[in-house]
Amino acid sequence: MTANTTRLIIELLVNNCVIVTATAANKNMITNLIINP
Fold first, then answer.
1. Residue 6 C-alpha from the chain's centroid
2. Which superkingdom, per the lineage (predicted)?
3. pTM of this prediction?
4. What separation in angstroms does the CA of 6 have from each of 9, 19, 37?
5. By residue range, what is the domain housing residue 6?
6. Cα(9)–Cα(7) distance, rounded to whole angstroms?
7. What are the C-alpha distances in Å from 13 to residues 17, 23, 27, 29, 31?
8. Three-state SS string across the chain, please?
9. pLDDT tens digit string along 1-37?
10. How many distinct structural domains can be found in the chain?
């Protein structure tokens, strides 16, 4: 039970990191498009 919970938490954290990096990359791409059309 505890091992499964830890695994779930780790997976959630990893997914969250992936989502955050993807959003940051999208924001950078959008600002680049606005600055350099």
1. 20
2. Bacteria
3. 0.56
4. 5, 20, 46
5. 1-37
6. 5
7. 6, 15, 21, 24, 27
8. CHHHHHHHHHHHHHHHHHHHHHHHHHHHHHHHHHHCC
9. 588 999 999 999 999 989 999 999 999 888 888 887 6
10. 1
